UniProtKB/TrEMBL annotation:
<dbReference type="GO" id="GO:0006152">
    <property type="term" value="P:purine nucleoside catabolic process"/>
</dbReference>
<feature type="domain" description="Inosine/uridine-preferring nucleoside hydrolase">
    <location>
        <begin position="13"/>
        <end position="265"/>
    </location>
</feature>
<dbReference type="InterPro" id="IPR023186">
    <property type="entry name" value="IUNH"/>
</dbReference>
<keyword id="KW-0378">Hydrolase</keyword>
<keyword id="KW-0326">Glycosidase</keyword>
<dbReference type="Pfam" id="PF01156">
    <property type="entry name" value="IU_nuc_hydro"/>
</dbReference>
<protein>
    <submittedName>
        <fullName>Nucleoside hydrolase</fullName>
    </submittedName>
</protein>
<dbReference type="GO" id="GO:0005829">
    <property type="term" value="C:cytosol"/>
</dbReference>
<dbReference type="InterPro" id="IPR036452">
    <property type="entry name" value="Ribo_hydro-like"/>
</dbReference>
<dbReference type="GO" id="GO:0008477">
    <property type="term" value="F:purine nucleosidase activity"/>
</dbReference>
<dbReference type="InterPro" id="IPR001910">
    <property type="entry name" value="Inosine/uridine_hydrolase_dom"/>
</dbReference>
Amino acid sequence: MTLPATTPKPRRIWLDTDIMIGMKDQTPREVDDAIALIMALQHPDQVELVGISTVTYANYGYEVTQKLLAWYNKTGRDIPVYRGSDTANDVGTENDATRALADALRTETLPILAIGPLTNVATVVQNHPELISQIEEVIVCAGRTPGLPFKPGLEKMAVGDYNFEMDPASFRILFDAGVKMVLSGYECSVYLFLGKTDIEFLNNANEPDKWVYDQLRPWQQFNELLFGVDGFVPWDTTPLGYLTHPDYFKYYHDIPVQINVRASDTDANSEKPYLEVSYDFHDTPWRATYAYKTLPGFEEIVIDDLRQASARNR
Ligand SMILES: [Ca+2]
């Protein structure tokens, strides 16, 4: 007897993002959250977005997420968006996002793809400890192996571990709560690079493509100014990749995690905390899965997903 073929169900996930693509400012703004969102929408067989919450630029993030969903959500499902914490340091203060995430976790267990500072997620964990066991895992773009400087491109300058340094207290809350943490940060993401030719197909008359291109291209040029190469690393796509394409990454499993305070490598004459992983750490109860390498095929997937999103819009 043969069993009827079944399609594997997508994993239902919550997305928390500090999306800022296109925000009007003195300089172009980071575009990786937008790329991760567009990618997630291309894999409805793998992931189903239950809800999206914004952090840091909560109001702008809300608007631009709605704009991108209107263009790229072809899943046939409505995906609600909630405004979260505007300052990355008001952990404990409830907002639309924390209430919605808590409600979702009361209904089902979920993994949380948190590609910004962890303020919203930590607020839920701190205020609703009964929901901690409902969080399957939190996948974040942060962390490093000890001594690894974050020097993209021609290594002209070091950058910080942004999501962590914006709100270290929230990371502490999640690790202390024993939440299963997946760190997919600089070390694995820096293998990815989108240059001008990689995105040129978006430079066309189609409104969504053109708008996205008009944000991506200045971001590439701004990166050349800072790091010496024309193009950018789509950082936040690797934590998404853990969910959609886990075989394209190499991981240290169950690796001890510590926050260590030392001289800052980004700010002279000051100290800062570093979120570090090492099997040599023995005095910490914190553990994580740590992505340390992205295999080359994943970059093609990022580009193919953008191509597919573009094609679906014609
Ligand atoms: Ca982000």
